[in-house]
Amino acid sequence: MRYFLFILSLTILMWACSNAPQNSGIVNGKSIFMSKCITCHGANGRMGLNGAVALPDSDLTLSQRMTVVDKGRKIMPAFNAILSQEEIEAVSKYTLTLK
Ligand code: HEC
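Above: inputs. Below: predicted complex with heme C.
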């Protein structure tokens, strides 16, 4: 009986996870930035931890930013295994809005 309850709760847990709202097709650059980038760049892009460039002062173009996020640079990790190309584009666009 115990074992049955254990399996049952596992099944419910897995069901609950698989039904968790996926990001419903809308890629939100800001929320990606808040979860993946603020650790070094800060919410306003100026924190500069580990020598991170102040993003509002960056004059890189969108495609150059996408390359940095995709491949990483020095301490900054590559995000190509973590984010889809669509997400990389969205978060790079978001960095262009930082002032
Ligand atoms: C582990 C810390 C760290 C994280 C996390 C991080 N970065 Fe960086 N980032 C850096 C560092 C350090 C540099 C400067 C690299 C260099 O000097 O070549 C940098 C540089 C950049 C640049 C280039 C700016 C320029 O003008 O050269 C962009 C764009 C950028 N980061 C965007 C992002 C985005 C978007 C994310 C989240 C997906 C992110 N970073 C996550 C540390 C980080």
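The two ends are 60 Å apart (CA to CA).
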